[in-house]
């Protein structure tokens, strides 16, 4: 009977584990603020982790008020890193300015 109980517990744990979403499914909690030279102050609320997000007309400054690191990129496709902002960090950028961001 002990083997049956252990087996049931193991199957239940496995079912629970496989039902959990992967890390890319999570959203960063909080707001990412940035300033675009042409568009002014903008923000992203609870952005998805792992998704490359366009910064409208680029960002000359950014503030990461999410609970996840934000990696900024000079290009629009998240391929040319411009720097990383940990939760609570901010940064101003000179030329060239970042044009995309990815969380996680």
Properties at a glance:
1 helix, alpha+beta, single chain, 17% helix, four-stranded antiparallel sheet, globular, 104 residues
Structural write-up:
The chain has 104 residues and is of the alpha+beta class. Helices cover 17% and strands 37% of the residues. The protein has 1 helix and 8 strands, in the order αββββββββ. It has one helix at 2-19, and strands spanning 30-36, 40-45, 52-54, 61-66, 70-73, 81-85, 90-92, 100-103. The strands form 2 sheets. Strands 2-1-4-7 form a 4-stranded antiparallel β-sheet, with no helix packed on it. The longest helix is centred in the N-terminal third of the chain and has 18 residues, at 2-19. The chain is globular and about 30 Å long. It starts with a helix and ends with a strand.
Write the layout of secondary structure elements.
Layout: H1 2-19, E1 30-36, E2 40-45, E3 52-54, E4 61-66, E5 70-73, E6 81-85, E7 90-92, E8 100-103
Antiparallel strand pairs: 1-2, 1-4, 3-8, 4-7, 5-6, 5-8
Overview in brief:
With about 100 residues, the chain is α+β, with helices and mostly antiparallel strands. It is built from one helix and eight strands, in the order αββββββββ. A hairpin with a 3-residue loop joins strand 1 and strand 2.
